[in-house]
């Protein structure tokens, strides 16, 4: 791969969901139907995203913009490899640091400390690195988390989970950072820390894909914007062009 080759490449990407229930059959479906879902199950299904094609190059910071429910989070999940597309492909050339869910994949019954070790290890951090970084992670997450670090995470507020999740993921050296609305949850002090961290990671040349409804965050971090409307990618341009389309200033 040369420097200008895409680090993320989507071609004709689409996904189908069944109405009225959250999908929780992923593993079972995969066992029976390979990488595709049950082809007979078409009733009551819909395509939140269809025919998306784009390339993202290393070091780019791209905002995904669109109304509620247009499939922004779904797109990030497909890039992260936790959701399998029903048509098309997404190729990702590099490890992904995902901040997709508010809970950061934490297990409620485990303590904050155990979760940091588990989630860090699942993302490939060695025990040695995790031990060395542990205090820094807890310190980043703030005083409230530090006081509860040996309590089960199910007792944490969503803000506490996000802070601890961000603190762990920010330590990963992975080249691709996927961030879904995480900064919206924190208070002003935490947001300031997040901004500083994101700026540092971008200055290091990481690739960012950011889902946000916050225009300030999008223009602060992203140079490029993908505007998704009606399940299609309708604008792939500067972040301002995508925001203008979102705000209905231009016809798409
Ligand atoms: N697992 C699922 N099963 C069925 N439908 C789903 C599933 N996940 C999401 N959806 C639906 O797919 C559509 C896209 O959801 P998604 O969360 O990706 O939108 P979004 O653009 O991120 O929304 P928001 O801005 O509100 O976060 C929505 O209609 C949502 O209700």
TrEMBL record:
What name has this protein been given in UniProt? ABC transporter domain-containing protein
Look up and give the organism this protein is from: Catellatospora bangladeshensis
The record's family statement is: Belongs to the ABC transporter superfamily.
Q: Which domain of life is it from?
A: Bacteria
Q: Which PANTHER family match?
A: TEICHOIC ACIDS EXPORT ATP-BINDING PROTEIN TAGH
Q: Which Gene3D superfamilies does the entry mention?
A: P-loop containing nucleotide triphosphate hydrolases
Question: One GO MF term, please?
Answer: ABC-type transporter activity
Name the UniProt key words of this record, in alphabetical order. Answer: ATP-binding, Nucleotide-binding, Transport
- The answer to whether the entry has keyword Nucleotide-binding is yes
Cellular component terms, GO, for this chain's entry?
A: membrane
ABC transporter domain location: 25-252
Database matches in CDD domains: ABC_KpsT_Wzt
Query: Pfam families from the entry?
Result: ABC_tran
């Amino acid at each position: 791969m040369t420097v200008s080759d895409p680090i993320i490449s989507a071609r004709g990407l689409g996904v189908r969901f069944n109405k009225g229930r959250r999908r929780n059959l992923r593993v079972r479906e995969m066992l029976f139907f390979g990488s595709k879902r049950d082809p007979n199950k078409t009733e009551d299904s819909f395509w939140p995203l269809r025919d998306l094609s784009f390339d993202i190059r290393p070091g780019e910071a791209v905002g995904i913009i669109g109304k509620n429910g247009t499939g922004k989070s779904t797109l990030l999940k497909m890039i992260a490899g936790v959701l399998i597309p029903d048509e098309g492909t997404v190729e990702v050339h590099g490890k992904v640091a995902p901040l997709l869910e508010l809970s950061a994949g934490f297990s409620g019954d485990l303590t904050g400390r155990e979760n940091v070790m588990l989630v860090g290890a699942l993302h490939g951090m060695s025990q040695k690195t995790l031990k060395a970084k542990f205090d820094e992670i807890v310190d980043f997450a703030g005083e409230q988390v530090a006081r509860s670090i040996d309590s089960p995470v199910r007792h944490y507020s969503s803000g506490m989970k996000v802070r601890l999740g961000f603190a762990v993921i920010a330590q990963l050296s992975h080249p691709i950072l996927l961030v879904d609305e995480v900064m919206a949850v924190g208070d002003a002090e935490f947001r300031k820390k997040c901004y500083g961290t994101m700026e540092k990671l971008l200055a290091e040349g990481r690739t960012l894909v950011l889902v946000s409804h916050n225009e300030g965050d999008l223009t602060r971090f992203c140079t490029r914007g993908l505007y998704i409307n009606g399940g299609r990618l309708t604008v792939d341009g500067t972040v301002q062009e995508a925001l203008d389309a979102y705000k209905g200033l231009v016809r798409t």
